[in-house]
Each structure stands twice: as structure tokens, then as C-alpha cells.
Model the fold of this input.
Amino acid sequence: MVRGPLFLALSITVIASAASAEIARVKSTSGNAIVQRGANHIPAATGQALEAGDWLVTGKDGRMSLTFVDNTRFAVGPNSRIAVSKFEYDRTRQQGSFVTQVDRGSLAVVSGKIAKSGRDAMQVRTPNSLLGVRGTRFIVEVPK
Amino acid sequence: MIARGAAAFLALALAGCAHSSMVLLPDEDGGHGQVAILESGGKATDAVVNDANSRATLGGAQPSIRPVGALKPQEAALVGDLPPPAKSFTLYFLEGTTDMTPESAPVLDELRAEIAKRPGADVQVTGHTDTVGSDTDNDALSQKRAEEILNLLASKGFDRLIMSAVGRGERELKIPTADNVSSPPNRRVEVIVR
Done:
């Protein structure tokens, strides 16, 4: 039960690996649905990994759903443009912060561990509002 | 006339400009949380949507919050698209080994069935030990337990790319004990399937 430098070193390793890579996976997709990463437009595919900063973009028949590593779940409706602007999660402590930006379209959310880890640790921004998510299921709609 | 004209124009502008909205739904387990409207129309607010099945119209200085009846068809479709919740499984081990207890064999079968029915699955395998032995040995043993399960799953045809294994040693005891205490519930691997 000694919690010495080794414990510290392991914790840091876990944080570093969580910050760098995969934050979510695509679970379903239909119609015109892409993941925009920088200048790359990647057609959304089941099993595809997402990274912080990715945009989820759908056309008029497009939909996709995803599950994040903190167990948050998203369903993205047609004609949407949504960014995961910030996603930081420490798997060991189950704490983090999560900001989603809905420029247009619709998004259903079931919040996960990040929303439970601190007051307004999960936020959703629309062009004219900022929401603080306190452990729940909800829909955000931003008409064109 | 001018005032009336301005009012009519304003009404038209409002009707033509659809507002953003948020609908708070009941949780899947029947309870519900809250969504705070931290800012609306560029101003900080202290509005909090507290009641399930409420719709908040966003963007005004004072957001309006009203009960909703049935969801619109496109909203119901969106909620229906949400992936299933993550599911977790626990497998137990014989003392000091990477051998599963016989009781855990059926749990492994359930785990395989769960992964198989989830397109785009992500499988997180975390090994643990009890407090018998040194921290260093337990870090290694917990990692081996996690890898044993990952290898068993891989041998059944699951792609290693969808799985990750990590050992947490004796840091996260299921049942808290003193050091050097043999504890079957603590000798485990937890698997989360998303």
C-alpha cells in the first residue's frame, strides 16, 4: 500500500496517454456524415476513433452516434455542424472537462463521468448560449 | 404608425428567426439531472432547467422554460439514435495467479456476447490484485491478469485494436483491507464495453 514515486509516475503516464489520443468512437452512421480534423474530411465510419478538436458534420440525410471514453453518448442529427472543442479526461481519477460547440443542427446527449466530476465540467455552447450540464439526458437544437 | 410598423417588423423578425432550444429529458433510469443556462444572448444568467420534459428557448436575456408534451418526430428519432449505455463485467482470479475462478467462465461468455453485438465496440480491461505481496509484484500481476483476458478475447477473434489492458495493482481495492490480506473480491479484472 506504499504510494510512492512509482504511483506518481504511473498516474502521470495514464494522464499523458489519455490526453493524446482517442476520446470517442463512432457507433453508427448513415447518409452524408463526416469527421473534419484540421483540413482533413474523413467519412464517418463505425468504429472510427475521434480526437479532441474534431468537427462532426452531417448533410441533410446524415446522422451519426458516438460514445466517449468517459461514457458520454452523442447522437448527431441531420444538417449539423458540431465540434468537440475540448475533451480532457483522467481515466484513473474519472475527472475532466468537456466543451462541445453546436454551430447548427441537433445533438442528443447522455452525459457521463466528466459531467459528474465537477460543477459545469461539461458545457455545451450554441451561437447564443452556454449550457452547464449537471448529469443528465437532453437535446440541443440550433436551427440555421 | 411608425411605432406600430416597428412592432410588426419586430414580430416578423422574431417569427422568422428560429431560436436555439434545449429539451431536458428524463434519464434512462427514471431520474433526471439539470442543465444550467450559464449564458444567454451574451449575458450571464442563473437560470437552471430543473424539470424533466422542459424546453428552454435560448438566446434571450431571460430564457423561457416551458413543459413539453410529446417530442417532435425528429427529436424522438435523435434520442433513438443514442448508443446503448456502457456495460461493465467483473472476472475473478485465484490467489497469486492469472487463472480465472471457475465461476467467472460464464461471465467471460456474456462479455464476448456483449462485444459481438456492439458495432464499433471499445473494450477497456483493467486488472487488480488484493494486498498480498509487494506493490511491484502486484502491479505486474494485475497487468498480466488484464492481458490474460485481452488475449482470451483476441483468441476468440476480437480485434486487438478495439481493446486496451492496464494493471492498477492494489491501488483500487473493491473491498478495503489492511496490507497483506488475501481477498477474493479484490482479485479481479474489470471490463467496460462501450
Q: What stands out?
A: Chain A has one domain: 5-142.
